[in-house]
Amino acid sequence: MQSTPGTAEMALPPLFRRDSAPPGYTTPPFPSLHMPPQDPKWSLYAVSDIWRFTLLWTLIFFGLFHLGAAGIALLMQAGKRRSNWKYLWLVPLVYALIAGIEAVIAGSVVGVIVGASYVAGNFTMSTWIPFVWGWVNVLVLIVSSFTIQGGL
């Protein structure tokens, strides 16, 4: 059975079906969180762009949460002896380094997988999706930091 012009496949909006980026398309600048999110001008088409946006959002969120934890760790030392403060300046640096390493790994893995899924499915990606995946990465990190009682 051959399809003719005007069938359901041809009637799908460009948000869900595409063959390539529209003519004259340029990658939107980071962060590009615009409304409405379905506007093709603010969509991502290449895996490299999807990976980059996801990596950057993951770096931002991991950095904020790790430096927040470092700040709390420093505040807990407020009433302690002055000799303890000699090396405490290293705490934010170590936390920032760990955040960077974790974010590069998590953001790269998630960005490539999500980007490849969108490209393989022939979908366009709103710039909000990498933002959401950055939050998901941080929430997975937070949940995995708790011990699980009664585990296997």
Provide structural commentary.
The chain is elongated and about 65 Å long. The protein has a domain at 42-144. Helix 1 (47-75) packs antiparallel against helix 2, helix 1 crosses helix 3 (128-144) and helix 2 packs across helix 3 (128-144). With 152 residues, it is mainly α. It has 3 helices and 2 strands. The chain has helices at residues 47-75, 90-120, 128-144, and strands spanning 43-44, 125-126. Strands 1-2 form a two-stranded antiparallel ribbon.
Helix-strand layout with pairing:
Layout: E1 43-44, H1 47-75, H2 90-120, E2 125-126, H3 128-144
Helix content: 40-55%
Q: Largest beta sheet, briefly?
A: 2 strands, antiparallel
Taken in chain order, the helices and strands follow as EHHEH
Briefly note the structural class of the backbone: mainly alpha
Rg from C-alpha positions? 21 Å
The end-to-end distance, rounded to whole angstroms, is 54 Å
Find the count of extended strands (DSSP E, 2+ residues).
2
The shape is elongated
Average per-residue pLDDT, rounded, comes to 81
Report the uncertain regions: none
Tell me the strand order in the biggest sheet: 1-2
Keyphrases for this structure?
152 residues, mainly alpha, 3 helices, elongated, membrane, transmembrane helix
